[in-house]
Amino acid sequence: MQPSVESLVRLLESYRGRDKVIRTFCYGSQLVGGVLSQKAQSDVSSHQLGKRLLLFSAQLSHCRTVLRLFDDLSMLAYSHSYGIGGGEEDAGVRLVSVLTNVADQLYYPCEHVAWAADAELIKVKSDNWWLLSTVLWGTSLLLGILRSLRVLLLLKKKLKRYERDGGGNSRSQLRRQMRRESLSILSSMADLGNAIHWMPPGFLWAGRFPNWLVGLMGTISSLIGLIQMNAGDSDGTDGP
After folding, report:
1. Rg of the chain's alpha carbons, rounded to an integer?
2. CA atoms of 162 and 204, how far apart (whole Å)
3. Is the pLDDT of residue 99 over 90?
4. How far apart are CA 84 and CA 94, in angstroms?
5. Which of 164, 208, 214, 229 has its CA 20 to 30 A from that of 195?
6. Whether 203 contacts 195, CB under 8 Å
7. What end-to-end distance do the CA atoms of the chain give, in Å?
8. What sign does the CA torsion over 168, 171, 177, 181 have?
9. What is the pTM of this model?
10. Mean pLDDT, rounded, of the chain
11. DSSP states of 77-89 as a string?
């Protein structure tokens, strides 16, 4: 078996890897489906294919929502292992990381309640719970951006010190870390754009994104997630 195929099999055998692949296909289908469905009604075949791809994307999104029913314990274990961030050198990074973990931990039960309400397992309105889960996801993304910006600032200071004092290996390692943080910022900003789109109308650009733009933002974020996982740099949890 070719190495590339073996890598894909290993990726799909892990829960996180499979989720990232499903997420990529979900948003990729929404991107292509959104573009095709906007074509003129005279192009019936493309229009219908676009609609099918959007339906396929919705099913994959629902699949990920169901799978996240079992993510609470792993998130709790991660939050417990991180604690109050005693291993962090910077107090700002520590505070933001703890708040991010709290937002992530609260996100899951809120989404579970919304899902159960839509499935008519419980008799509550799902709208407010979906809104709350989206707010928590957006809060987590915003905190993640702030954390990465702070880490980038600290890394730049370290890099200047190493350039002054020497140390080639340390400088190359710092540059790799800075690239990872920059990718994290780009990924979180793309997801934050979608999170705001799913907020109630009237809040910034809520509800104004066409399907293809939602798909584009999510595809960018998902591809970055796959790149980071391939580089062994995936330690968080993925939202919608």
Report:
1. 20
2. 42
3. yes
4. 7
5. 229
6. no
7. 33
8. negative
9. 0.91
10. 91
11. HHHHHHTTTTT-S
Using the predicted structure, report yes or no on whether residue 237 has a pLDDT greater than 60: no
The CA–CA distances, whole Å, from 132 to 95, 135, 138, 144, 209 equal: 22, 5, 10, 18, 20
Neighbours of 131 (CB within 10 A): 15
DSSP character at residue 231: T
DSSP string of 4-69? Answer: HHHHHHHHHHSHHHHHHHHHHHHHHHHHHHHHHHTS-TT-HHHHHHHHHHHHHHHHHHHHHHHHGG
What confidence tens digit (pLDDT) does each residue in 222-233 have? 999 999 988 765
* Secondary structure (3-state) at 147: helix
Please give the pLDDT value at position 170: 77
The structure tokens listed for 12 are 């799909």
Q: Using the predicted structure, report yes or no on whether residue 140 has a pLDDT greater than 80.
A: yes
Question: Could you tell me the two tokens for 116?
Answer: 């159960």
Distance CA 215, CA 130 (A): 19
In the structure encoding, which two tokens stand for residue 205, read together?
């650009």
Report d(CA 72, CA 227) in Å as an integer.
25
Q: Name which of 31-40, 93-102, 108-117, 128-137 the model is least confident about.
A: 31-40
Q: Which residues of 153-178 are buried (b: 16+ CB within 10 A; e: fewer)?
A: ebbeebbeebeeeeeeeeeeebeebb
CA–CA distance, 191 with 137 (Å, rounded to integer): 9
